[in-house]
Amino acid sequence: MYNKSFLVLLFFGIVVLLSSCESEGPLVTRTSEESFEEIREIEVNGKYLEVSYEGIENASKVTLNSYLEVPENSDLDVKFRKSGSKLIVEVTGNAVQLNFFNFNGGDNGFISLTGPEDIKLNISNSSGSIDVKYVKHDHIDLQVNSGYINALALNVEDINLKASSGSIKAEGLVGDVKAQVNSGSITMNEVQGDVHAQASSGSLKLEDVEGTVSGKVNSGSMKFNQITYLGDLTVSSGSINATNAGLGEQTVLKSNSGSIKIQTPSDLTKFNFDLSANSGSVTVGEQKGSKRLEIDNASEHTIQGKASSGSIRIMN
Fold this sequence. Notes:
single chain, 316 residues, mainly beta, 2 domains, 19-stranded mixed beta sheet, 67% strand
C-alpha cells in the first residue's frame, strides 16, 4: 500500500512540476493575414483551433486570418501554401505536450477564412469547432474529433458532417446530408434534401426537412417535426417521436427498447401495415392490437415497424 501511495504522489508531483515549468515561459502571439486569388478548393487541418469559413457573394479572392497564442518555446504555428487552385492550411508543431500540461487553456487561437460562395471545402479538427456558412458547391466535408460543427446556409449536393465526440448543428441546408456522431447530438432545421443521420450514443432532432429522413441511434432518442417522408429509422435503446411526418415507401420503424409514436398527415388507407410490439400495444388510426397488427389496404407499399419493448402508435 505504501509503495502504491508513494508512486501516485510521485506521479502527480512530476505532473505539477512539469506544468509549472511549461507555464513559466511567456506567451507569444503568431498571426497571419493573407489573400489568395483563383482558389477553388480549401483544405484545413486546424487541430485544436477554431476554424471558420464564410462565403461572400461576388467575392473573387480568399482571405486568411489566423491568430495563435502559445508559449514562446512552442513550435506550434499556422502554415499555408497554394497548390494550383487549392489552398492548404494547417497547424504544424507538437500540440500534445502543450495541451497535456496547459490546464489553463493558454493555447488558443483561430483560423478565419472568407471567400467565394462557390468553393470546395474539406475541414478537419482534432479538438475545436468548425463554423461554415454561405457555401455553394457539389461537395463539402467537415469533420471534428472532439468539438462541434455549425453549418449554416449551405447549398451543396453532398454534405458530409462528422463529429466523433461532440455535436452537429445545421440550418438552411440544400442538398443531401450525411451526419454522424459517436457521442453527442445532431440538430438540424430547414433542410431541402434527404438526411441520413447516425449516432452511437446521443440524440437526433430534425425539423422542417423537405426530403426523406433515415437514421440509426444505438443509445438515445429520435425527435422529428415537419418531415416530408420518414425512411428507415432504428433505435437500439430509446424512442422515436415524430409529428407532422409523412409516411413513404421506405418507411421502416424499429426500437429495441422504447416506444414509437408517429403523427402523420399521410392517408393511412394508402398503406399496408405490419407492426409488432413484444411488450406493448400497437395502434394505427382507430385500429388496435395487443402485440401485432396487420392491415391490408391492397396497397403497393407496406409500413413495417417493430418495438421489442414498448408500444407503437401511428395516427393522423
